[in-house]
Design goal:
With about 725 residues, this protein is α+β, with helices and mostly antiparallel strands. Among the domains are: about 110 residues; about 100 residues, no CATH class; about 260 residues, Alpha/Beta hydrolase fold, catalytic domain (Rossmann fold, 3-Layer(aba) Sandwich). About 20% of the residues lie in helices and about 30% in strands. The strands form nine sheets. Strands 32-33-35-34-36-37-38-39 form an eight-stranded mixed sheet, with helices on both faces. Helix 3 packs antiparallel against helix 15 and helix 9 packs across helix 10. It starts with a helix and ends in a 7-residue tail after the last helix. Keywords: Hydrolase, Protease, Serine protease, Signal. InterPro entries: AB_hydrolase_fold, Pept_S9A_N, Peptidase_S9_cat, Peptidase_S9A, Prolyl_oligopep/macrocyclase. This is S9 family peptidase. One of its GO terms (biological process) is proteolysis.
Amino acid sequence: MHSFLKAAALGVLTLVAACTAPGPVAVATEDPYLWLEDVTGERQLAWVRERNAASQAVLEKRPEFAPLKARVREVLDSRERIPYPTRIGEHLYNFWTDAQNPRGVWRRTTLAEFRKPQPAWEVVLDVDALNRAEGASWVWKGFQCEPATAAGVVERCMVSLSRGGSDAKVQREFDLASKRFVDRGFVLPEAKNDIRWVSRDALYVETDFGPGTMSASGYPLQLRLWQRGTPLAQARIVYQSQPTDLGVNAEVTPTPGYVRHLVQRVVEFNTYENFLLRDGRLEKIDVPADTFLWFHREWLLLQLRSDYTAGGRTYRAGSLLAAGLDGFMKGERRLDVLFEPTATRFLVRRAVTFTQSRVLVESMDTVATRIEELWHEAGAWKRREFALPGKSSAYARSLHDRSLAADTLGESVLLTYEDFLTPDSLYLGRTGTNERELLKQLPKFFDAEGMRVERLFATSRDGTKVPYFVVWPKGATADGMNPTLLRGYGGFQNSELPHYAPATGNAWMARGGVYVVANIRGGGEFGPAWHRAALKGNRQRSFDDFIAVAEDLIARKITSPRHLGIYGGSNGGLLVGAVFTQRPELFNAVVCAVPLLDMKRYNKLLAGASWMAEYGDPDKPEDWAFLSAYSPYHHVAAGKKYPEVFFYTSTRDDRVHPAHARKMVARMQEQGHPVLYYENIEGGHGGAADAAQRAHLQALQFSYLWSKLARPYPAR
């Protein structure tokens, strides 16, 4: 094993060094920019439009803006994109957008047809036509369908639509045979809601039932059973979470003979109280609160995020265990270890999927995907490696319909493979074999000839080795002048893996930019301990890791502060906000997207309270002590020099409040700092509602980056 990699992996499990944050700051009792928290007020939107106009006037005049926008739009609308399918009954369904269908069509075909280079698709629902008919601005948010009949037929789905891309959505019952919404069918009014099908005539429903039924984060606290033909308000309460909880959740495993109903009290992010609902009674499943669990036929599977002692043995965090469900519920603790982490290999955040007879387990070994298939035979668990096309990022999704007792596609698996320079490929595989049929492949959306990928390590403040990827453009050398874009996330156990990104490839790498992805703590690249290392009072470690990567890029002369830019969105927006306020001299460009920035009020804004398990509670003095040490909104200062930051957000983002970016911009402008700001009126947390908006936003972003980071023109 490479010594750096071994040190990094071992460092995950033995992090004891204290991290030093910049220090708490005094906070004024009155925030002069609270008025910007009114999302759609006339005065507030006038403020937004004024800054949008000023920023666009600068960036749209850049020579690269128009060609970048055109090329990104061409990629986003390309008919050569892979139409990733989902199986419903006898068909494969896909949601598709292009230039003719900007809000998209939901369509279907057969597997035999899908195998063809140009499948024939049948349109089931045209969202653009629906918008025209209803005078709305619906954005597709997905669907959930009833269990299949014994003959494999699925007829009804609940279709989710949101206004402008927000998380709040309307759900309407849809008939797949007639391709129409069901007259007097199930309809859930607009809210942050969810459903699970119980039968053709019954749904589990989580939605806003009025005062006291929604959490401080804006998520439902009640789980109800709604019978067809009865008013929604009269749906029977199945479970009620506590007022201080994050919410409630239900899952239905429809396997014939093994139907399971899981009810979860969601206490906080990644913390649950789990119940098995059977015979009308809730039976507690006695597992650690941070465990991810699944049902598979007679088995209960547990993915541990903390150590678990049971039956006289302690099982390590990051392990995957299996137990007979009936015995477990009776108190037996006969547990089989299906996976145990090593120094370099860890499960992904939710690692398990199922075929009819097998369990597919996805892990990362030195941030490269591995997939195993496991099955129980002759009293023991057997395993084999699932064949992958290479050693980078792969994703497996079963085509098995778990509501069927016998399924001709029960062992079929869709496999996606990609890396930074290899376009996505979609394969059809089968468990128990090494068969792999190439179904679809992206074209080369940018010229990667001469590009190369390098894996390097930086040393963080406490000595931890932090890995990062460098994608070098053709002909680039370590001369200290390469325009370099460094991105990171570092939160919620989400991992930054190698992905083929056509827009970034065209707008950045193919034009001579170095692209860097950092695998900092707070993410999941090295298991739950890598995540826990940056929780709450240890958040500064994520920032230190990112700073260490920036410093390493400069020390290696891959780039220099004049040519180094950083990007982060959502939690990544908090990351780059904290880093540029702490070390502004390291960067010449910052893209801060849909960010958290005001860590004093984040828990009072939209879904913010749901993240207190990650960040802490600013209303507790002991937590505010460490939050105030880095809160970007409270650390930006008039006497410091910062790069001209580009902030962007969305008015329709009902997850991370747009006031974070608004207030930061207002404060920086008051202090005399140059900033650029763009707020898309639609788009939700993704920032854009369709391809046109995404192309415009990305063209603004990359025009900004080139304006700040481009190499100097050679002297004439």
